[in-house]
Design a protein that fits this description.
Blueprint lengths: L8 E6 L2 E6 L4 H7 L23 E4 L6 E2 L10 E3 L3 H16 L15 H8 L23 E3 L9 H9 L5 E4 L6 E4 L15 H5 L5 E3 L3 H9 L4 E6 L20 H11 L3 E4 H22 L5 E2 L4 H10 L13 H11 L1 H5 L6 E7 L3 H5 L14 E4 H10 L21 H4 L6 H15 L17 E7 L4 E8 L1 H13 L6 E5 L17 H16 L10 H11 L5 H7 L13
Parallel strand pairs: 1-5, 10-11, 10-13, 12-17, 13-14, 16-17
Antiparallel strand pairs: 1-2, 3-4, 3-5, 6-9, 7-8, 15-16
Helix pairs in contact: 8-10, 8-15
Length: 582
């Protein structure tokens, strides 16, 4: 067994407090160990260090200049001070300079009271900047259904650039110009949707201000509810229930399903259903599609199609490989199809009176409901709200979320299995599919249903599953940068896999671009743990065992992949012309 080398420890003081940390630790992290929060804006714990804003400047005894705490490694005997007059005056000056070039209409900003710049100005008691405003009054860029950009709110921290480039490998956002004229923009200042952007929203999740936000649909949803003329129902994705509590002081990964359902009913939704039902339905269609491809020489590897950002990426970057995508709609869209075309018969309401709202951890879902392939028969999902928008709604009506009693989802579209629940985590779609595919292919009961090899936050995971007459190799990737690694082999025709799951966001939907501000990899891990905990404690953990799904097929669809199922639950894709041709 190889010897593990011990990391040498470094001893230093921060504000006269002795601190011992491993060599290589940055001052910012060392200070956190001493319970000292050094102010920062460009720093993000999941991103590589930028040291752009210099707000984290600290004084080191014996040195003439200030040091950036985010990028400076500690050394033996170092004496750091974070609260001296020169440090404070520097930090105040930096904030004042930012405010001079920042649109200060805080009351009308979507990030009001949830803005890092606002929070720091409050911390330093900066009520106004003494410097004249030099902000350029540019209009907000509202050209797509998912993301809104407000250049007048941008502080040039670079977080969005790093999220797009380092996490997704896309680089739709970049710096342009130099010095005081530097801006964050797209190539040639094109609208985001006209670039390689997939509208995943990871940029909005890390933006410290209101420069990048989701397009808000809360007013339209409230109008539909309060008009009293519509039968307004909602579906809630599995990742929402383990993230919603963040905004109400619950620990990361807290399961708030019961309180969430109660809150939605108090908001006025006629019925509150579970997207996990749609996930179970997706497994029936997608799983049987995979088996059909395996047994009849279909295109392999088959790839999941649940994530709209991933689908858009395929259309934009790999238009020649679209046959690899499953034709199954996402759980949200399958649920919407059932809600608009079958549920009215069950509920005894006119189809035109049904308004469907989807509450999702994702900004790309807002664009998904506008896809031409999804609107041929009208909108099956009328509105999408992100987790952040749901938080806003709950707060707007004054609900004390933590004190709410627990309620159950409504029937019949609230019945779901643990397989549907794990769709919220990377690897969950694949695991749910394998639970059903194995039993359908072999006719045997799957005794060990936990596929540990494809769980967790590793970028690419793989497993081999014995289906009796053949073994199938599967792979799971989260983030598009990791997905591209798999796509290189697919394009060359050398992929060793039969089935591939891809989720665009880190950790899957639990780390989605519409989740609460402040989501980090560490928090995402807690949400994943909670997702599997939900699965573990449900009485049914395989999609094909869902009694409501069985009845849906018996009464309306016939069987998976039937003509009726294809019409209602499957879709097509179109290659998109490259944004730029040279």
């Amino acid at each position: 067994m190889p010897e593990t080398k011990e990391v040498p420890m470094v001893h230093l003081t921060i504000n006269h407090i002795p601190v011992t940390v491993p060599k290589g630790t940055k001052i910012l992290q060392a200070a956190q160990q001493a319970h000292i929060d050094i102010p920062h804006l460009c720093f993000h714990e999941d991103q590589r260090i930028k040291a752009h804003c210099r707000l984290c400047s600290v004084e080191v005894i014996g040195r003439r200049r200030l040091y950036a705490a985010c990028s400076t490694e500690v050394w033996e005997g170092m004496e750091v001070h974070t609260d001296t007059p020169i440090v404070r005056s520097t930090q105040v000056a930096i904030l004042q300079l930012m405010l001079a070039n920042h649109n200060r209409d805080c009351l009308s900003c979507p990030r009001n009271q949830n803005c890092d710049l606002q929070r720091l100005c409050s911390r330093f008691n900066i009520l106004r900047s003494p410097l004249p405003s030099i902000v350029k009054q540019e209009p907000r860029i509202m050209t797509n259904p998912s993301i809104i950009r407000d250049p007048s709110k941008c502080i040039r921290c670079g977080r969005c650039i790093r999220a797009c480039k380092d996490v997704q490998g896309i680089a739709a956002l970049t710096y342009a110009h130099r010095s005081s004229d530097i801006v964050v923009t797209t190539a040639y200042n094109k609208p985001m949707e006209a670039t390689d952007c997939v509208l995943c929203g990871q940029c909005s999740a890390v933006c410290p201000t209101g420069a990048i936000v989701e397009r808000d649909a809360t007013a339209k949803v409230l109008w539909a509810i309060q008009s009293g003329k519509k039968h307004v129902i909602c579906q809630v994705a599995p990742a929402v229930r383990v993230a919603l509590g963040d905004a109400f002081g619950l620990p990361p990964g807290a399961i708030a399903t019961g309180q969430m359902v109660t809150a939605l009913k108090m908001l006025g939704f006629t019925k509150v259903f579970d997207t996990n039902f749609g996930a179970d339905l997706t497994i029936m269609e997608e799983g049987m599609e995979f088996l059909d491809r395996v047994q009849h020489g279909g295109v392999l590897p088959m790839m999941t199609s649940c994530c709209p950002a991933w689908v858009t990426y395929m259309e934009k970057e790999h238009g020649g490989q679209l046959a690899h995508l499953s034709s199954a709609k996402s759980p949200m869209m399958m649920f919407g199809a059932v809600a608009k075309h079958i549920y009215p018969q069950l509920a005894g309401v006119a189809p035109e009176d049904v308004v469907t709202v989807a509450i999702m951890p994702c900004t790309a879902k807002k664009a998904e409901i506008e896809r031409a392939q999804m609107t041929k028969d009208g909108h099956d999902v009328d509105y999408v709200l992100t987790t952040r928008e749901l938080i806003k709604l709950i707060k707007s009506v004054g609900l004390t979320f933590n004190d709410l009693p627990e309620s159950d989802f409504d029937s019949p579209l609230g019945e779901a299995t643990g397989a549907g629940a794990i769709f919220g985590a990377t690897g969950g779609v694949m695991e749910a599919a394998l639970r059903t595919v194995y039993e359908k292919a072999t006719g045997k009961t799957l005794e060990k249903i936990d596929f540990e090899d494809i769980r967790g936050m590793e970028g690419i995971k793989e497993a081999t599953v014995d289906l009796g007459d053949r073994q199938v190799r599967v792979a799971v990737a989260h983030t598009l940068r990791n997905a591209e690694t798999l796509m290189k082999d697919v394009e060359k025709g050398t992929s060793p896999y039969d089935f591939i799951e891809v989720m665009a966001c880190p950790g899957g939907c639990v780390g989605g671009g519409g989740q609460p501000i402040g989501t980090t990899r560490a928090i995402t891990r807690e949400r994943i743990r909670a997702i599997y905990d939900i699965d573990k404690h449900l009485p049914r953990r395989k999609s094909h065992e869902n009694p409501v799904i069985k009845k849906l097929y018996a009464d309306h669809l016939g069987a998976p992949l039937s003509e009726a199922a294809h019409h209602l639950l499957h879709t097509t894709y179109d290659a998109v012309k490259p944004a730029y041709e040279f």
